[in-house]
Protein backbone atom coordinates (compact mmCIF):
# COMPACT_ATOMS: atom_id res chain seq x y z
CA UNK A 1 0.00 0.00 0.00
CA UNK A 2 1.41 3.38 -1.06
CA UNK A 3 1.44 5.83 1.84
CA UNK A 4 2.45 9.47 2.20
CA UNK A 5 3.78 10.81 5.47
CA UNK A 6 2.73 14.41 6.10
CA UNK A 7 4.87 16.10 8.75
CA UNK A 8 2.98 19.02 10.22
CA UNK A 9 -0.40 17.69 9.12
CA UNK A 10 -2.33 19.87 11.58
CA UNK A 11 -0.79 23.16 10.42
CA UNK A 12 -2.54 25.73 8.27
CA UNK A 13 -1.25 24.26 5.00
CA UNK A 14 -0.73 20.74 6.31
CA UNK A 15 -4.35 20.21 7.30
CA UNK A 16 -5.69 21.49 3.98
CA UNK A 17 -3.25 19.22 2.19
CA UNK A 18 -4.15 16.22 4.36
CA UNK A 19 -7.83 16.65 3.51
CA UNK A 20 -7.05 17.02 -0.20
CA UNK A 21 -5.00 13.82 -0.17
CA UNK A 22 -7.81 11.90 1.51
CA UNK A 23 -10.37 13.36 -0.89
CA UNK A 24 -8.20 11.95 -3.69
CA UNK A 25 -8.16 8.44 -2.17
CA UNK A 26 -4.54 8.69 -1.00
CA UNK A 27 -3.34 6.86 2.11
CA UNK A 28 -1.95 9.34 4.61
CA UNK A 29 0.16 9.03 7.75
CA UNK A 30 -0.31 12.34 9.57
CA UNK A 31 2.47 13.27 11.98
CA UNK A 32 1.24 15.83 14.51
CA UNK A 33 2.11 17.01 17.99
CA UNK A 34 -1.52 17.04 19.10
CA UNK A 35 -3.87 14.58 17.40
CA UNK A 36 -6.94 16.43 18.68
CA UNK A 37 -6.28 19.05 15.99
CA UNK A 38 -7.32 16.45 13.40
CA UNK A 39 -10.36 15.24 15.34
CA UNK A 40 -12.69 16.65 12.69
CA UNK A 41 -11.19 14.51 9.92
CA UNK A 42 -12.59 10.98 9.70
CA UNK A 43 -11.28 8.67 6.99
CA UNK A 44 -10.20 5.04 6.98
CA UNK A 45 -7.19 5.99 4.83
CA UNK A 46 -5.83 8.24 7.59
CA UNK A 47 -3.36 7.11 10.24
CA UNK A 48 -2.40 9.65 12.88
CA UNK A 49 0.97 9.54 14.63
CA UNK A 50 1.34 11.84 17.62
CA UNK A 51 4.95 12.89 18.21
CA UNK A 52 7.08 15.88 19.15
CA UNK A 53 9.48 16.88 16.36
CA UNK A 54 12.11 17.63 18.99
CA UNK A 55 12.15 13.92 19.84
CA UNK A 56 12.80 10.81 17.75
CA UNK A 57 10.09 10.62 15.07
CA UNK A 58 11.79 8.16 12.71
CA UNK A 59 9.20 5.43 13.39
CA UNK A 60 6.59 7.47 11.50
CA UNK A 61 8.43 6.84 8.20
CA UNK A 62 7.84 3.08 8.20
CA UNK A 63 6.16 1.88 4.97
CA UNK A 64 5.87 5.42 3.55
CA UNK A 65 6.93 5.98 -0.05
CA UNK A 66 6.44 9.74 -0.01
CA UNK A 67 7.16 12.37 2.62
CA UNK A 68 5.96 15.97 2.75
CA UNK A 69 7.52 18.31 5.29
CA UNK A 70 4.90 20.98 5.93
CA UNK A 71 5.78 21.76 9.55
CA UNK A 72 6.77 25.24 10.65
CA UNK A 73 7.50 27.10 13.84
CA UNK A 74 4.89 29.76 13.10
CA UNK A 75 5.15 33.49 12.77
CA UNK A 76 4.80 34.25 16.48
CA UNK A 77 7.71 32.16 17.80
CA UNK A 78 11.31 33.13 18.33
CA UNK A 79 14.48 32.19 16.50
CA UNK A 80 14.97 29.20 18.82
CA UNK A 81 11.82 27.48 17.55
CA UNK A 82 12.70 28.41 13.99
CA UNK A 83 16.03 26.61 14.34
CA UNK A 84 14.49 23.58 16.03
CA UNK A 85 11.56 23.08 13.62
CA UNK A 86 12.26 24.77 10.29
CA UNK A 87 15.92 23.72 10.26
CA UNK A 88 16.76 20.88 12.61
CA UNK A 89 13.52 18.89 12.36
CA UNK A 90 13.54 19.31 8.57
CA UNK A 91 17.11 18.02 8.35
CA UNK A 92 16.32 15.08 10.61
CA UNK A 93 13.26 14.30 8.47
CA UNK A 94 15.49 14.05 5.39
CA UNK A 95 17.84 11.73 7.28
CA UNK A 96 14.98 9.50 8.40
CA UNK A 97 13.62 9.45 4.85
CA UNK A 98 17.00 8.38 3.52
CA UNK A 99 17.22 5.58 6.07
CA UNK A 100 13.75 4.33 5.08
CA UNK A 101 14.38 4.47 1.31
CA UNK A 102 11.64 7.04 0.73
CA UNK A 103 10.98 7.49 -3.00
CA UNK A 104 10.15 11.21 -3.03
CA UNK A 105 10.52 14.00 -0.46
CA UNK A 106 8.58 17.25 -0.84
CA UNK A 107 9.74 20.23 1.21
CA UNK A 108 7.55 23.26 1.85
CA UNK A 109 10.15 26.02 1.83
CA UNK A 110 9.75 29.76 1.22
CA UNK A 111 10.35 32.47 -1.30
CA UNK A 112 13.70 34.00 -0.41
CA UNK A 113 15.22 30.76 0.85
CA UNK A 114 17.57 30.72 -2.14
CA UNK A 115 19.33 33.87 -0.92
CA UNK A 116 18.24 34.89 2.59
CA UNK A 117 20.29 38.10 2.48
CA UNK A 118 17.84 39.50 -0.08
CA UNK A 119 14.90 39.18 2.29
CA UNK A 120 13.72 41.58 5.01
CA UNK A 121 16.09 41.73 7.97
CA UNK A 122 13.46 40.52 10.42
CA UNK A 123 12.99 37.41 8.24
CA UNK A 124 16.68 36.48 8.04
CA UNK A 125 16.64 33.78 10.80
CA UNK A 126 13.63 32.09 9.18
CA UNK A 127 15.03 32.30 5.65
CA UNK A 128 18.46 31.05 6.74
CA UNK A 129 16.79 28.08 8.44
CA UNK A 130 14.82 27.31 5.28
CA UNK A 131 17.92 27.75 3.13
CA UNK A 132 19.99 25.34 5.21
CA UNK A 133 17.17 22.78 5.37
CA UNK A 134 16.80 22.94 1.59
CA UNK A 135 20.56 22.53 1.13
CA UNK A 136 20.56 19.51 3.41
CA UNK A 137 17.80 17.88 1.40
CA UNK A 138 19.54 18.71 -1.89
CA UNK A 139 22.71 17.01 -0.66
CA UNK A 140 20.93 14.00 0.86
CA UNK A 141 20.73 11.91 -2.30
CA UNK A 142 16.94 11.79 -2.02
CA UNK A 143 14.64 12.47 -4.95
CA UNK A 144 13.01 15.75 -4.00
CA UNK A 145 10.65 18.59 -4.81
CA UNK A 146 11.30 21.87 -3.01
CA UNK A 147 8.29 24.17 -3.20
CA UNK A 148 8.95 27.83 -2.36
CA UNK A 149 5.62 29.65 -2.10
CA UNK A 150 5.29 33.41 -2.09
CA UNK A 151 3.74 35.33 0.80
CA UNK A 152 0.84 33.27 2.11
CA UNK A 153 -2.75 34.46 2.30
CA UNK A 154 -5.96 32.99 3.67
CA UNK A 155 -8.02 34.01 0.64
CA UNK A 156 -10.09 31.42 -1.17
CA UNK A 157 -7.95 29.33 -3.52
CA UNK A 158 -7.81 30.51 -7.11
CA UNK A 159 -6.49 27.27 -8.65
CA UNK A 160 -4.21 29.29 -10.93
CA UNK A 161 -0.45 29.59 -10.61
CA UNK A 162 2.81 30.93 -11.95
CA UNK A 163 6.43 30.02 -11.25
CA UNK A 164 7.65 33.43 -12.39
CA UNK A 165 8.21 35.81 -9.49
CA UNK A 166 6.06 38.94 -9.97
CA UNK A 167 7.96 42.20 -10.22
CA UNK A 168 5.75 43.85 -7.64
CA UNK A 169 6.33 42.48 -4.14
CA UNK A 170 2.67 42.84 -3.18
CA UNK A 171 1.74 40.50 -6.04
CA UNK A 172 4.16 37.77 -4.98
CA UNK A 173 1.49 35.95 -3.00
CA UNK A 174 -0.33 32.64 -2.99
CA UNK A 175 -3.25 31.29 -1.01
CA UNK A 176 -2.71 28.46 1.46
CA UNK A 177 -5.47 26.59 -0.38
CA UNK A 178 -3.41 26.71 -3.56
CA UNK A 179 -0.17 25.66 -1.86
CA UNK A 180 -2.05 22.56 -0.69
CA UNK A 181 -3.18 21.90 -4.28
CA UNK A 182 0.41 22.28 -5.50
CA UNK A 183 1.57 19.75 -2.92
CA UNK A 184 -1.09 17.31 -4.07
CA UNK A 185 0.24 17.60 -7.62
CA UNK A 186 3.85 17.22 -6.49
CA UNK A 187 3.06 14.01 -4.60
CA UNK A 188 0.84 12.41 -7.22
CA UNK A 189 3.01 13.56 -10.16
CA UNK A 190 6.59 13.50 -8.86
CA UNK A 191 9.11 15.12 -11.22
CA UNK A 192 11.48 12.92 -13.21
CA UNK A 193 14.34 15.01 -11.85
CA UNK A 194 14.55 16.71 -8.48
CA UNK A 195 13.39 20.30 -8.70
CA UNK A 196 13.09 23.61 -6.85
CA UNK A 197 10.12 25.77 -7.81
CA UNK A 198 8.82 29.12 -6.60
CA UNK A 199 5.05 29.33 -6.87
CA UNK A 200 2.61 32.23 -6.80
CA UNK A 201 -0.96 32.78 -7.83
CA UNK A 202 -1.09 33.49 -11.54
CA UNK A 203 -2.97 32.40 -14.64
CA UNK A 204 -1.72 28.86 -15.35
CA UNK A 205 -2.81 25.39 -14.31
CA UNK A 206 -0.55 23.64 -11.82
CA UNK A 207 0.65 21.08 -14.39
CA UNK A 208 2.05 24.00 -16.41
CA UNK A 209 3.99 25.31 -13.41
CA UNK A 210 5.40 22.34 -11.51
CA UNK A 211 7.68 19.87 -13.32
CA UNK A 212 6.43 16.31 -13.62
Automatic annotation (TrEMBL):
It comes from the Bacteria. Transmembrane segments: none annotated. Residues 8-190 form the NAD(P)-binding domain. InterPro entries: NAD(P)-bd_dom (IPR016040), NAD(P)-bd_dom_sf (IPR036291). Coiled coil: none annotated. PANTHER family: FLAVIN REDUCTASE-RELATED, UPF0659 PROTEIN YMR090W. This is NAD(P)-binding oxidoreductase.
Amino acid sequence: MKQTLIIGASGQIGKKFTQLMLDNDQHVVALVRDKSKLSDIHNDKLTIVEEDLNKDFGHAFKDCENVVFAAGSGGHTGADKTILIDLWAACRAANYAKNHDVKHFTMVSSIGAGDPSEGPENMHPYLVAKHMADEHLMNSGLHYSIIRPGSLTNDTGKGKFTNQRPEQKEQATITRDDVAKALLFAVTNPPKKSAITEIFNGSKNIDEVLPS
